[in-house]
Amino acid sequence: MTPYLSLSVWVPVVAGLAVLAIGRDRDAGIARWIALAGAIAGFAVTLPLFFHFDTGTSAMQFVERSSWIPRFDIWYHLGVDGISVLFIVLNAFTTVLVVWSAWEVIQTRVAQYMAAFLIMSGLINGAFAALDAVLFYVFFEAMLIPMYLIIGVWGGPNRVYAAIKFFLYTLLGSLLMLVALIYLYGASDTFSFLEWYNLPLSLRTQVLLFVAFFLAFSVKVPMWPVHTWLPDAHVEAPTGGSVVLAAITLKIGGYGFVRFILPILPDASRYLSGFVIALSLIAVIYIGFVALVQADMKKLIAYSSISHMGFVTLGFFLFSPIGMAGGLAQMLSHGFVSAAMFLCVGVMYDRVHSRQIADYGGVVNTMPKFAAFMMLFAMANAGLPATSGFVGEFMVILAAVGVNFWLAVLAATTLVLGAAYTLWMYKRVIFGAVANEHVAGLTDLSSREFWLLATVAAAVLLMGVWPKPFLDVMNASVVDLLAHVAKSKL
Amino acid sequence: MELQLAPILPEIVLLAAACVVLVVDLFLPDAKRHVSYWLTQLALLGTAWLVLATASQDPVRAFGNMVVDDMVADLLILFSLVAVSLSLFYGRHYLVARGLFRGELFVLLMFAALGMMVMISASHFLTLYLGLELMSLSTYALVALHRDQAAPAEAAMKYFVLGAMASGLFLYGVSMIYGATGALDVDLVMQATMAGAGNRTLLVFGLVFVLSGIAFKLGVVPYHMWIPDVYHGAPTPITLVIGTATKLAAFALTLRVLARALAGIEFDWQGMLIVLSLLSMVLGNVIAIAQTNIKRMLAYSTIANMGYMLLGFLAADAAGLSAALFYAVTYVITSLASFGIVLLLTREGFEADSLDDYRGLNQRSPWWAFMMLLVMFSLAGVPPTVGFYAKFAVFEAAINAQFLWLTVLAVLTSVIGAFYYLRIVKLMYFDEPVDRSPLEANGDARALLSVNGLALLALGILPQPLMGLCAIALAQSQFH
Q1: Do B422 and A71 touch (CB under 8 A)?
Q2: Which of A35, A265, B145, B196 gets the highest tally of CB atoms within 10 A of its CB?
Q3: Portion of chain A with pLDDT greater than 90, in percent
Q4: Is there a contact between A210 and A265 (Cβ–Cβ < 8 Å)?
Q5: Which residue from B384, B415, B429 is facing A168, i.e. has the nearest CB?
């Protein structure tokens, strides 16, 4: 059997190393083409994971297992279920977009830029596929290094602050998680976390472990009030960095909730669900208002990401199949939509070198094709039916109605707020009279940009119109996950 | 009784070689100094090979149990000798440029190495003390080698005064232990303490003094005052020896005294180590943030790292000790690379020890910037570098020994520590270079340093061989 999972981890890493070894700054073209080839190869090896996936079972598939560090009984153990497989494909897809989007934009140290993204892509796939806690942790932490460099080297004026803040926030959370992982190893004599699903733990222990895991993953998601690194990181990161941050690395936080917190600590999860739901609603509503007043487009989208991710955690902690699947669908959709929004801002930034909403106005007059694409993505961000953004939000609200009507009402404010901040920004940037000579001098999309945005647009529409294939893949795993959550471990 | 020379054959060879170099060097003109250099390298590496070649399955004791040749000793001696040898390789152009490439240096280094070997394989308090003094006196002189400059002379003076006091404390403690147990043989002391014999008050007093001496040699808070000054003032290759090889010798000292001789009063020294470890982690990491000199920063980083190592030690079981051993060995590999890169950037009249000297290193030389990146992330304990597994192993041992809250504190301090390591990466990658001079180091130094740096990554991807070796060595040497 072909080890597709290992390939999806190591093909991008090897391609990244090849770019580093061969690429020279003087002749950046070679680095770009190798990187694109590597990204496409990396995407190609993940496709069998999706198409050969058996939707009838919740068991791990494409499993690979070999001894790695026998001293602590640590295994190189990979496998995917319906939850993780989609994110691996999404990540590999995003990597292609990122490499492609950086084509002419990045002119300094091209080889290092491309290599950082490719290596990070492999590490992220590793985190989604790992079934051994230490292996997961290694990938989870290692991906900070390339992201730190991406923000710091190719970022904006305040990049150093943003990069260090990003790194330290995440490191603090994840080191406490390491303590929790080692504690669980002590209690079970194994790092294979699937076995922890059946490990009995007292409520006190579960709550303490919950705190440790929650810190790690809530920083990553990010949830209010530990979200403050995200706007900084997004604003300063280059377009590709923002795309990967929003589309992929935030999802690892959400993935951590469903892979670790809910099934390993079911009693603590139920015990503290009110707390998590409250934080999620604050993220949805308060951060929605914060997004409304932003003057910087990237910051606005960053806050909108936090708000959307609040929907994800809300869906998870309602403990119903539709809420859980809704949260996952919302993560997938947000992967496409936030990537698209950041790419759109990147397109404008490359021309005008400003992200301020006030510096634009009437862009539709000079960039009609671009305006059409951005319209679609803005609508998707606002959760318009027939776009991918609608599916997850609708499912989560549906699940919330089942729990408590007023909860659903509060959650549903996102539909109003999301539309308000996204469309108001769209109106100010795109419509109206041509605001200044910069806008007047804009040129419409190049063919590279056109096809880049068209690819994402196709994905957004496909998932919005026909979400069934995605939902089918995750269905069995969601049912199994909820069975674990329902079972007390006391 | 038959005289058993086999267990100390490597020591004898190194001693003889040191004498030969001393004599040969007298007859060499300055232009031929490299002959002594290569003879020294040959002696160090030859001795290392001999240690490997004479390694035995079971511990061999000789001279009425004055020395023991076990796997832990072999492992630590091997790494110490390689560390001394690499310090010379990395520092050659530095030493030549400053007129320090002289016979004294080679002979003193070999005597320091000999002292370490005696100390590491000692199984008797007097042999331990003998080795400790031989090593210490040689390193005091090495620090002062650049004698016409103020900073090294000051550093050497501080090192000597404080070091002599620490030796005195150690010896005083040993006398009390002798008074309490009537023995100086490590194994006999262990039997006595395990059996609960002797005056316990006297024994614990002895422990306090002995531990003070050990803490000084390890450089943990509050016995750390000398570390930043000596690291900063000493010629960088000598800093490298003090930061690596002598740490391994001090580790052996800790192992023989605490984990073996005083195993019977484990609870007493565990409590003391908790304080030492916690203070070192906090103070080392916090003060390192304020440093603008990389040698001082690495000095405080050493203090913090010794704190983490003690975390494994205070777990005091097989897993903890092997985690501590693994930590010590990987720390030495990492330190070798860090100071190696500092040395690589030096040239005549330029010490490359200010943090600003690392600005934009990625644009000057992506390869060395990458190597330094590996070093920094390894020190910060970020995977996939070997530093992560070192921290992982000590955390695991500490949590397993019920020191959960201490581990949580350790984790928090390591986040503080990550800040200043990240700052170096920031300087190298995010900033524009100030200095664009080409690098001057010799080809062999570059090649070895590359191997050294990549070892951090290779051991980070496959840590099992070294980790397993540490566990086997401790089991064979009968610590617990």
Answers
A1: no
A2: A35
A3: 18
A4: yes
A5: B415
Confidence of residue B146 (pLDDT cuts 50, 70, 90): confident
Q: Which of B314, B469, B305 is nearest to B378 (CA)?
A: B305
Q: Which of B420, B242, B289, B439 has the alpha carbon at shortest distance from B350?
A: B439
Cα A449 to Cα A372: distance, rounded to the nearest angstrom: 13
Task: Give the pLDDT band (50/70/90) at residue A54.
Answer: confident
Q: Is the dihedral of CA A426, A427, A433, A437 positive or negative?
A: negative
pLDDT at B391: 92
* Residue A97: partners with Cβ closer than 8 Å, 6 or more residues away: A243, A339, A343, A452, A455, A456
What residues does B293 pair with on adjacent strands?
Answer: B354
> Are the CB atoms for A439 and A361 separated by under 8 Å?
yes
What's the mean pLDDT when you consider all of chain B? Answer: 90
Mean pLDDT estimate for chain A: 88
Distance from CA of B228 to the nearest CA of A (A): 26
Tell me the chain A residues in contact with residue B373 when contact means C-beta distances shorter than 8 Å.
145
Question: Are residues B384 and A142, on separate chains, in Cβ contact within 8 Å?
Answer: yes
Any chain A CB within 8 A of the CB of B433?
no
Evaluate the omega torsion of the peptide bond into residue A225 and state whether it is cis, within 30 degrees of 0: yes
Comparing C-alpha atoms, which of B50, B40, B72 is closest to residue B59? B72
**Model pLDDT for residues A410-438, shown as the tens digit of each residue:** 888 888 888 899 988 888 888 888 878 88
The pTM score is 0.92
Q: Please compute the mean of the pLDDT values over residues A209-215 and round it to a whole number.
A: 92
- DSSP character for A190? -
